[in-house]
Amino acid sequence: MRETVDIPAETLSRLIGLIYGAASDDDLWPSLLQAMADFLMQAGAQDARLVSTAETDAIVASWFGDTSSPLPSTASAAEQQVFQLLAPHFVRAWDMRQTQADAETHRQISDSVLDRLPVGVALVENTGAVVSMNRALRLILDNNDGLVLVAGRMESRPRKLLEDALREVTSATAHPGTRTAFRLEQAAGPLSVLVSKLQPTNETTPLAMLWVASADVPLVPEGGLRELFGLTAAEARLAQRLVRGLTLEESAQDLGTTTNTAKTQLKAIFAKVGVRRQPELVQAIWSTPLWLDQGGGQPNRLPLGKHATPAPRTSAGDGRMVLPDGRALAWSDSGDPDGLPVIQMHGLSCSRHLRHPDDALLREASIRLIIPERPGTGDSDPMPGRKVADWPADVRALANHLKLDRFAVLGYSAGMPYAFATAQAMPERVSAMFIVAATPPIERVDDIKAYSAHFRMALMVARYMPNLLPPLLHVVVRSIRKDVYRYIESILKAMPEVDQQVFRQAAFRENYAQELLAGVKHGGQHFVIETLLNVHGWQVDGHRFAMPVEFFHGALDWHVSINAARALVRRIPGAQLHEVEDGGHFLIYSHWRNILHTMRERLSCIA
Fold it and tell me: SS3 for 4?
């Protein structure tokens, strides 16, 4: 019989309160997990315990299959008691989330009202990041080049106009009614833009409202004119242009008809509307609610459109093969086709899409970069019951397919365990191993302290209470799928300036959005499995490498401290650490050229 652990009433009460709070506020998850982690540490959960792949699969399946939620057989008495006491509350909390989802449906109905307005409306942050926009603005963006959406951020052409306007209305000294306006001259016709400050809320980021009007967008729906006044289609289209301020001659030219035909149609319009002159016609139409409703019998919501989400992108270097067991393996192949081959192991929730936007840097260094997607990521098929140690077989099959006798491996962030496994399994083919922004293994509670607070609690749950990981990551997966650019903007707030600077490049944000969506393409279950394997599926001690091993780590890395990287390198005989003083966790992009040239020098010496 398992030993019991006394849980103070105030601790249990606080945990239960946080569970219900997190049901309606995702921002409370870190507080809940911190409280659970504090209790486990106080209960003596110091040494990390491995959880078998079969057990983690059962845990994951139970959450996604709405069955009971088992704990691993290695669970401590504290884990058993905490889960047994809290599980019913988690179930009720997730029921509350469903209620919240219903409320979200009602909010979307309210948003559809904005979709029927003839003027473009958007809510944006002071950086230009779009929080929401209506149908009319999507239409304007698809048909104009004066205002564009670049990787989730609104930009004007020239950029300075909107940047200055946002800076003015969102400044700390601007009062709530502050507004400014400007016009964008373009070939498709001018755009009028009004930028106004919103009333302060509990949001930490200043927000502004954009109102955008285009002269070439009909302000009154054709269908409404036909229904309300009994106009023909041709008469309604003429009335639309007259309301926009065009003369009769300009309207006829725009419609591709003669002025005489337009005059005849205008007389019919006058008779049906009950007016005698053109100004009276315009006034009569503006006196109706037609101009407020752009639905016209069509669906309220437009598709997201070419600017809103990254379209699936392939290139000449993308490849897909069938492995011996029938699974598909996808990869990207970029850089110098005749250069030294490097196979990169991508990070957690990443994919083949997340690489430096400028492939010219690879050609400059004479390096061919190949990034295979792990099972269950992007276009690679899932592999039930997989382990980290299974990955080298996929890499071997890919290398054989590409006719690579020798190659280097590059592990980025959480791709490090897979780089280690590949180098150890194929010493005769791996010429060198490079690790960028390493994520050390978690073997004791103290190891988690090396990670940033943003990830610390998820790691604690994955290591000590893996049964709670699926609902935690469900929040992340849902956010990514709902609006990937909004998710990117939310995580940027936790990053230091050195990494935020990387995300200011629109091309990088686009690549990052691509890789996030690819990472959750097969569902949250595979994201959970990848996380559990990263925590439970490998270790450092016992690894002996026959090839050079070099690490690159930023001194400003916010994800993993430089001290943890130093301690890790000391555990690997012969390994070398390159400390990048001004590098963060994304130094593989901010310092890519320097890393490539260092890799090239090492590979040239080996060759």
Answer: coil
Tell me which residue has tokens 């980021």: 205
* Three-class SS state of 222: helix
Contacts of 484 (CB under 8 A, 6+ apart): 152, 309, 310, 513, 516, 517
The structure tokens listed for 141 are 């963006």
Contact assessment for residue 342 and residue 302, using Cβ atoms and an 8 Å cutoff: no
pLDDT tens readout for residues 279-295:
889 888 878 877 666 55
Pairing of strands 120-125, 207-214: antiparallel
Give the mean pLDDT of 181-203: 80
pLDDT at residue number 397: 97
Bridge partners of 180, per DSSP, are 195
Q: What is the 3-state secondary structure (H, E, C) of 225-271?
A: HHHHHCCCHHHHHHHHHHHCCCCHHHHHHHHCCCHHHHHHHHHHHHH
Within 8 A by CB and 6+ apart from 265, the residues are: 232, 234, 235, 238
Name all domains of the chain by residue range, CATH numbers in brackets: 9-112 (no CATH), 117-214 (3.30.450.20), 222-292 (1.10.10.10), 319-452+494-606 (3.40.50.1820)
What is the distance between the alpha carbons of residues 199 and 208, in angstroms, rounded to a whole number? Answer: 9
Query: Distance from CA of residue 60 to its chain's centroid?
Result: 23
Residues in contact with 11: Cβ distance below 8 Å, sequence separation at least 6, in sequence order: 35, 39
The upper half-sphere exposure of residue 162, i.e. CA atoms within 13 Å in the direction of its Cβ, equals 27
d(CA 192, CA 185): 9
DSSP 47: B
Mean pLDDT, range 13-21, rounded to an integer: 78
Distance CA 447, CA 456 (A): 10
Which long-range contacts (C-beta less than 8 Å, at least 24 apart) are formed by 91-99? 92/20, 93/19, 93/20, 93/22, 93/23, 94/23, 94/471, 96/20, 96/23, 96/24, 97/23, 97/24
Pick from 551, 598, 554, 532: nearest CA to 60: 532
CA dist 103 and 529 (Å) reads 31
Burial class (CB in 10 A: 0-12, 13-18, 19+), 98: exposed
C-alpha 105: how far from chain center? 22
Per DSSP, 71 falls in state: P
**Cα R_g (the chain), whole angstroms:** 29
Residues in the chain: 607
Q: Return the closest-CA partner of residue 318 out of 370, 383, 388.
A: 370
In degrees rounded to 5, what are phi and psi of residue 96? Answer: -65, -35
Amino acid identity of 463?
Answer: R
Name the burial class of residue 369, with classes exposed (0-12), middle (13-18) and buried (19+) by CB atoms within 10 angstroms of its CB: buried
48-105 pLDDT, tens per residue?
Answer: 455 555 555 555 455 444 444 445 555 566 666 666 676 667 656 655 665 665 556 5
Instruction: Please give the span between the terminal C-alpha atoms of the chain, in angstroms, as a whole number.
Output: 61
- pTM of the full structure: 0.67
CA-based nearest residue to 584, from 467, 413, 448, 418: 413
Beta-carbon contacts of 326 under 8 Å, excluding residues fewer than 6 positions away, are none
- The DSSP element (H or E) to which 65 belongs, if any, is none
Which one-letter DSSP state was computed for residue 382?
Answer: P
**Helices and strands in the chain, H and E counts:** 25, 15
